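new request in #modeling-help
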Amino acid sequence: MAVTIKDVALHAQVSRSAVSRTFTDGASVSDKMRKKVEKSSDLLGYRPNLLARSLTTNRTKLIGLISNNYKNPFFFEIFDLFTRGLQDIGLRPLLVNLTNDEDPKACAELLAQYSVDAVIFMGSELHAGFSTAIRQKDIPVVHSFGRPADDVQVHTISVDDKQCGQVAAQTLLKLGYKSVGFIGGGSTMQVINDRLIGFETEIAKHPDIKFCKHFAGTHSFVAGRNTMQKILEKPHADAYFFSDDILSIGAISAIQDAGLSVPNDIGVIGMNNMEMAGWNNISLTTIHQPTAQIVSSTIELVEAIMEDQERHPETRLFSCMLVERSTLRSNPKN
Amino acid sequence: MAVTIKDVALHAQVSRSAVSRTFTDGASVSDKMRKKVEKSSDLLGYRPNLLARSLTTNRTKLIGLISNNYKNPFFFEIFDLFTRGLQDIGLRPLLVNLTNDEDPKACAELLAQYSVDAVIFMGSELHAGFSTAIRQKDIPVVHSFGRPADDVQVHTISVDDKQCGQVAAQTLLKLGYKSVGFIGGGSTMQVINDRLIGFETEIAKHPDIKFCKHFAGTHSFVAGRNTMQKILEKPHADAYFFSDDILSIGAISAIQDAGLSVPNDIGVIGMNNMEMAGWNNISLTTIHQPTAQIVSSTIELVEAIMEDQERHPETRLFSCMLVERSTLRSNPKN
DNA sequence: ATATATTTTGCAACCGATTGCAAAGTTGTT
DNA sequence: AACAACTTTGCAATCGGTTGCAAAATATAT
């Protein structure tokens, strides 16, 4: 069995309180006592049991890390950032995979049973039932990389999706594209809708530009490819903005298979700037979201909320950035 | 504050034991009592605190899920499988990211402090210090998708790497390639070495075949691309077997940029059959590992070990399968 | 109805920690 | 040396549960 505080106390001939105090910072212990306890602890290999501790401190340092986006490699990058960021400050991510519509209510309950200090949801679509269930348990929630439905009050950190759409539109306009399209994942998702609004609003300022939109249903290679194949059966636009890089990559494969060229026949601009977008065989022009900043800001906010539970829900929006590569024409056509 | 067993006992006018018993299966409670308790619990919204429970049961249902492979999208697929598989049987993954050489000893200690019931390491290279540290704490470990160094005794579940190399070699031989190469990630990794051994041994049976090998240092697109670029500066083989799909994909981009064609000028066969390998614009011929089976077998083994800690370390090897796509010539050249 | 076997229940101790409080020990002042 | 002020320590209660044991309740046999 693992060595407990009792063993150390016995060995060092001191009270259990003394041992406890040397392991909680800010507690009052004399140097002499500390030395004595540390000697015994080292000898026996004692570490405080964090779960037992949590019983009295009401702090587990466990953070629920939830996502429903295990199919898009972009989220793996975010995963990496989150897990490292959390463990760097001594917090431990407890994972929940909501990919397959697992019951969000039950999942919220489970997190409560593990007394997580907070919950981070990463992904575009935060299930309303989940967030209310979790908040009802008084567990702080932060939603990152997405926007909740309008009626949900929750801390939100993401890129400015409308601006992303706007920048994409401006980029296409500047390059002289006359007929442009938007291709999104699901039509019901808030972030995708925002990107669409930003894009369409900007395009609408130029009545001579033709506009169309399509939805692929989900953010995946296959969805992008299939959607583009359908589009190519009829007359098409000369450039498309996609709500996710992975869609663009699928679409490009369809375009090329149809014997057309990117960017000569059709221009493509993606969204996210996932690592793959920079690969030389893809070289996707795309809108970059500052993932590292969003992640660290999320973690900071989580820390802050744990201190002050009453904090009012806040929204932090980050600016995007155009990353020019090779899937749009480089000069305005005239 | 959350509602506790005490609140329920008070409300239902029964003892705390009674409440506890209705929430632990196999305990002796009369139907009448159960109904009474359940009524109160439902009303108050009570769920047992799993961490408090763990104090007496010595079971947390927490499983440490460790990886040092957050850069290779193939592992995201495995991640998805593991997290879903675990939560399906009521276990919760506690994540540790070892990507950046975080101190494995400290990490092992941390997992012990959270009293995880077991640890799953997924990745090719299990740090010896880590595994001994964790086993010293009497926490069961299973290593999946990799092989530990020879001197480490630990439960191991993976594909038969030597066989993978062998199958790759046979495939190339059958298609009449006369000069073949092996391109691996790190030269020190056991799995890569095994793949090399399987490959080289098979090739060596045919003295007329030319053989060479290279190491890219790591499994990434860029590493594959750079390595191939170097190779192309001099006379090269006419087909290569890569120890990971992602290397192949990087290499293909280099080959194509050099104005050569896959498979006409150079054949490529990868390893893993990650989802991306099946994308139409890549269509990589590769060796498939049965990931779903490896994952579920790992989880089963973990459950078994938790029952019987004394179980002797065991190795489970799965067969691989060739997946033919478009990066090798389709008929023997003569 | 009584004796016996079986099931159900509550008491109290325990799991591994923390912490308020009062007693004991130090230090400084006069 | 006596006293006050402050620090350090241990006691005992507590966190939210589980569980062995004996008493109470119920079922079964005679």
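bot summary: Chain A has a mean pLDDT of 93.
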